[in-house]
Amino acid sequence: MARSAPAAPILALLGSMCSIQVGAALAQHLFPVVGAAGTTALRVGLAALILLAVRRPSLRLDRAGWRALGLYGASLGLMNLCFYLALRTIPLGVAVAVEFAGPLAVAAASHRSRLDILWLVLAAGGLLLLAPLGAQALDPLGLLLALGAGLFWGLYILFGQAAGQIGEGAAAALGMAAAALVVLPFGAASAGARLLDPALLPLALTVAVLSSALPYSLEMFALTRLPRSTFGTLMSLEPAIGALSGFVLLGQHLSLRQGAAIAAIIAASAGAALSLIVAKARVPPLA
């Protein structure tokens, strides 16, 4: 089997993060109507239907395959639910920075070289600058929910690699279906019949595609081709993309401190990507 170019999974991961940020901006328009849990249910549920229709995955899996998919889907659903619930009481930038504790923990636990540690420290420093530690007191429940989202994000990375062994398309579709089964009860309890309002369908479908169906398919492609340490460190670009999206789409201006944080995170992500490319270039091709 030919080795895939290292640039392909890196570009897929970058595309995934950009798509999620645009979708997150649009999703905020659903909050006043169906709430955070209802928005999560619409986003994940519609994304599951789209992926199942497009991928048409086989259901002939052994017990280990179903277990891997269940763990992957549960972590995916709970990650989204906790994150949206956190956004009710704490700012988006704080929630993203706190949530990123999960991928950073994965990167720290699976580092293989001193360079990996360097990129991790640089990314952590940038995230620390992004977090408004000296600001007014934040809602404890919101912070706990963001930390919970980070925990499930880390588990999503770990379980996603195992689930990806059954096939990228099948894992993305069936994993999203499992996530929908987890979050739909919360959404139904929160929004009830409002989830079935046809007037919400165009926006909800757009959010589902941009926030779930497309990015998680791209992430599954990347998860099966990148080392955990590289994947975890590259995900540090997420808060930077979020901050830049806020500036471009919402007119939010960046302070000097925030600009320095974004520069540090971009440098860490670029360093991790270059390290992977150099490492693969040193491996002789298979005969």
Mean pLDDT level:
80
Shape verdict:
globular
Count of distinct strands: 0
Strand percentage: under 5%
Looking at how many chains there are and whether they match, the oligomeric state comes to single chain
Instruction: Note the run of SSEs as H and E.
Output: HHHHHHHHHHHH
Spatial gap, N to C terminus = 9 Å
Low-confidence stretches: none
Q: Work out the helix count.
A: 12
Instruction: Report the structural category.
Output: mainly alpha
Fraction of helical residues = over 70%
Rg over C-alpha atoms, rounded to the nearest angstrom: 19 Å
Largest sheet: none
Give the count of structural domains: 1
Summarize the structure.
By secondary structure, the protein is mainly α. It has one domain. Helices cover 77% and strands 0% of the residues.
SSE layout:
Blueprint: H1 7-27, H2 31-55, H3 63-86, H4 92-99, H5 101-109, H6 114-130, H7 140-163, H8 168-191, H9 201-223, H10 228-234, H11 237-250, H12 256-281
Helix pairs in contact: 1-9, 1-11, 2-3, 2-8, 2-9, 3-7, 3-8, 4-7, 5-7, 5-10, 6-12, 8-9, 11-12
